[in-house]
Design brief:
Blueprint: H1 18-46, H2 59-84, H3 90-93, H4 105-124, H5 129-144, H6 148-165, H7 171-186, H8 190-206, H9 211-227, H10 231-248, H11 254-269, H12 273-291, H13 296-311, H14 315-333, H15 341-353, H16 357-381
Helix pairs in contact: 1-2, 4-5, 5-6, 6-7, 7-8, 7-9, 8-9, 9-10, 10-11, 11-12, 12-13, 13-14, 14-15, 15-16
Length: 388
């Protein structure tokens, strides 16, 4: 007996099985023959006859129609038999709507990385290079989720293992010190961040370390210097990192463009807007070429350049950049994403300075509406004892 197993079909887009297709085809044929019968019947009604009987039809058409109806009904019953027995199973699943897409990649990736960690611990031992690498990969995942508590735990364990397996003066240990420095800076622990960055730079300076890691340590020290207002020291560290990037990766690399952006942030914080704009305008074409014009990093650079123009009073040059950022973010993130608040507010200020009050007010109201909508869920979730 034929089986109506639908589980082999793709979930959410199950096609009708062959039996249903045959039955549907037979039904269509039956309908066409019945239309012929109705047409014949209408002819006799229009002629004034009250009674209609098959005898008034041609024998060939009547026999053909009856045979077709019988065959169609028989095929339909045979086609449905397998599904009647499974009506509580797969047949009921046939008419389910397509499932909604589930964004569970992050959870799956976490489970996979944890499995890799357990496998490394069982095969190579708890203190091994493989375990340290697995810990760092898992830490990168939690870093993307801003789960700093787990990142700190994983990095501390990875550093302890690396110092035992590769030594305290190894490049791998320096890499973990740089990661810890970035973590501390994200947690607003500038002193701990500076200690970790200096520890990494000391390792990479005294030993024959990796030049790219050394550039990363110098850039990290530069970020700390900018946060502490030590702009001259930051400029020195950034320039040295920039020269290393240029020598090792070239002027057309993303790392070189990122270093140019950091130089721009430094000069913007120091109030040297002209120089800040020059560095940023050098970074934007590189990122547009390698990432595309609608990449989030390119949008960020354009928004920052528009802010520099606004601080210089060059509002006519700032408004087109801000409108481009708003348009690109709307197309990728939607019309109510919180990342629209910044460019909407800045654009409103610039338009107000240019005496376009009506458009400026419209953008201000839109930014305020997005901000209010973002605050509503947080206010609902807060409890009297919760902290802001």
């Amino acid at each position: 007996m034929l089986s109506g197993n639908l589980s082999l079909l793709p979930c959410g887009y199950r096609q009708f099985p062959v039996q249903f297709q045959c039955a549907l085809f037979c039904l269509i044929l039956n309908f066409l023959f019945l239309v012929c019968l109705v047409d014949e019947r209408k002819c006799f009604w229009s002629s004034g006859q009250k009674d209609w009987c098959p005898g008034n039809l041609s024998a060939g058409k009547l026999i053909l129609s009856c045979r077709a109806a019988f065959r169609c009904s028989l095929c339909f019953v045979i086609a449905l038999l397998p599904f009647v027995t499974e009506v509580n199973g797969v047949c009921a699943d046939l008419f389910e709507p397509p499932p909604l897409p589930c964004n569970c990649y992050g959870k799956d990736k976490e489970l996979r990385l944890k499995d890799n960690l357990r496998l490394a611990e069982s095969s190579a031992g708890p203190v091994s290079v493989q375990v340290a690498d697995a810990l760092l990969k898992l830490g990168d995942l939690f870093w993307g989720r801003l789960d700093y508590k787990n990142v700190r735990r994983l990095l501390d364990r990875a550093l302890s293992i690396t110092e035992k397996t590769n030594g305290k003066g190894s490049a791998q240990a320096a890499d973990i010190h740089i990661r810890l420095s970035r973590l501390y800076l994200a947690l607003n622990k500038s002193e701990e961040a500076e200690q970790s960055a200096k520890a990494a730079l000391k390792i990479l300076t005294t030993s024959a370390g990796d030049d790219l890691l050394r550039a990363g340590a110098l850039a990290q020290l530069g970020r700390i210097d900018v946060k502490k207002g030590r702009y001259e020291a930051a400029e020195h560290n950034y320039k040295e990192a920039l020269s290393i990037r240029e020598a090792t990766q070239g002027k057309e690399s993303l790392e070189y463009a990122q270093q140019l952006e950091q130089m721009s942030v430094l000069f913007m914080a120091a109030g040297r807007l002209e120089k800040s704009g020059k560095f940023l305008m050098s970074a934007i074409p590189i990122r547009e070429k390698l990432l595309g014009k609608k990449h989030p990093n390119v949008e960020w650079d354009l928004e920052m350049l528009a802010q520099i123009y606004c601080r210089q009073g060059r509002y006519e040059q700032a408004v087109p950049l801000l409108k481009q950022v708003i348009s690109d973010r709307q197309s990728t993130l939607g019309t109510e994403h919180p990342l629209l608040i910044g460019p909407l507010s800045t654009c409103a200020v610039a338009l107000g300075k240019l005496r376009h009050e009506r458009e400026a007010e419209r953008l201000r109201r839109r930014a305020a509406a997005i901000a209010a909508k973002q605050m509503q869920p947080a206010q609902k979730k807060r409890t009297p004892g919760s902290k802001l």
